[in-house]
Amino acid sequence: MLRVRGDRPALHQNRYEIEPLAPGARSTHWTSTSATLGTLRGRFVLAGDAILSFYSNPTGRYRGLECIQQRDERRYSVRGAMMEEDKIISTWTLELTAA
């Protein structure tokens, strides 16, 4: 669950199923389901202090990417974009703090 504060507060719920990393692996697959976006399938790639995420819906019409960078043990910075075919439909920046 992600609670967004600010001018337009919101509560987002996604269910992720993440394949465990194999020994020595630097990436894994995931699937997400939400009421807003439906089903997305993607890949997490470990890159130093960041996790890169690439994903699409089952038809490939919607695609996106996200970078989640760890700032310290409780804080993360997130940058991302979603596209419909080749048109950018959303970009975001988030600062996440563990409760």
Tell me about the biggest sheet?
7 strands, antiparallel
Q: How far is the first residue's CA from the last residue's CA?
A: 12 Å
Q: How is the largest sheet built, in terms of strand order?
A: 3-4-5-6-7-8-9
User: Which structural category do the helix and sheet elements fall into?
Assistant: mainly beta
User: Mind telling me the C-alpha Rg?
Assistant: 14 Å
**Which regions have little confidence, pLDDT < 50, spanning 5+ residues?**
none
Number of strands: 9
In percent terms, what proportion of residues is strand? Answer: over 45%
* Tally of DSSP helical segments: 0
Query: What letter string, H or E per element, gives the SSE order?
Result: EEEEEEEEE
- Using the alpha-carbon principal axes, give the shape: globular
Fraction of residues in H or I helices = under 10%
What is the overall pLDDT average?
Answer: 89
Can you tell me about this structure?
By secondary structure, the chain is mostly beta strands. Helix content is 0%, strand content 68%. It contains no helices and 9 strands. The chain has strands at 2-4, 10-12, 15-18, 27-34, 38-47, 50-56, 62-72, 75-84, 87-97. A 7-stranded antiparallel beta sheet has the order 3-4-5-6-7-8-9, with no helix packed on it. It has a two-stranded antiparallel ribbon with strand order 1-2. It starts with a strand and ends with a strand.
